[in-house]
Request: fold
Amino acid sequence: MVSNFVSMPSFEKAVKYLDVLTSISNNFLDGSLQENIVYVHLHKCGGTSITQAIKSCYHHLGSILDENTFHLNGQAASSAAQKIISQIDLSSETTAAYSDYLIAKFREDLLLYYMCQPNIKYIAGHFAFSNTAYQYFAKKYAFVTVLREPVKRWISAYFYNRYKKHQLEGEFSDFLKSDSAIKGGCLYVKSIGGLDKSGDYSSQKAIARAKENLHKFKVVGCLEYTPDFLNQFEKKFGKKLKIRRFNQSPKPKKIQQAVVTPEIEKKIREICQPDIEVYQYALENFVKKAT
Reply:
């Protein structure tokens, strides 16, 4: 468990150490969560905070020495590992769609590996929903995910990747025309609908597949309706979640608003149409909105 904290800022480490000790104490009295969970972490949907909150439900004295959870993260690590395994230049533009598929498939393989481990009770990470995993492990693991209004998610991801991760360069207007921008508008279709070798996640067939797969999740929440997600989770698993905020956007809202004009937001909304359709379906079918 200590290794999980190595790369974190000191303050964040201290907070998470305190959370671990607190949750161990609480779980000693109330019992840790018994049902196994796979949390499909959708980028910039509050997933880091939710991941930690769910993870705390599994902490107990024995888990300090025998780790019973697994967090699949680090897109760069997946890319590097898959490049070694496949001996393909994953940065080549001619293989972009296929390389994305290979990396995502590699992450699916890791997911299946950890689902086979008898001591692992909780798995979370940036992987696509796997029908293979569902077919073989639906009785052992419950699937959980949380979505966010797609335009807000897209904007948050852009500023996070550019100013905190330093993964994006160039003008914002140029980025809007890029493949990365288009992919960002289909995240839900890909991550919930599952992998497709063609790389086409904007078709009605792909969108329909994502909607269908939502029904395979035990809990589907939306970040804008967090109280409903918390109620769903407690009702299904018998544990209350305490959510702290991590990985917030590094740029103030005023700066974002200066860049994302109403005209630009309209273009982003067009890009996000596939995910908007999936999000609206989730709202209508899984979220009880407070009145």
In short: Residues 1-7 have pLDDT under 50 and may be disordered.
